[in-house]
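Same chain as my last thread, 60 residues:
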Amino acid sequence: MNLLLEDVKEMWTEFSKGGKGKKRGTSINKDRYVSKMFLRGDSVILVVSNPAALASGASS
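reply #2:
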């Protein structure tokens, strides 16, 4: 199923290549905002409607 999404926050983790010192092999969390996105169904892994709303609703 293809998706047409609005107001999307995309989050992913990148792993740095080996280097010298403390920066060696660390993971970096990245994110970006996309106002409108067409997403092909075969590339969908996980869809969460609004993580902030789910977290605030669970505490009440």
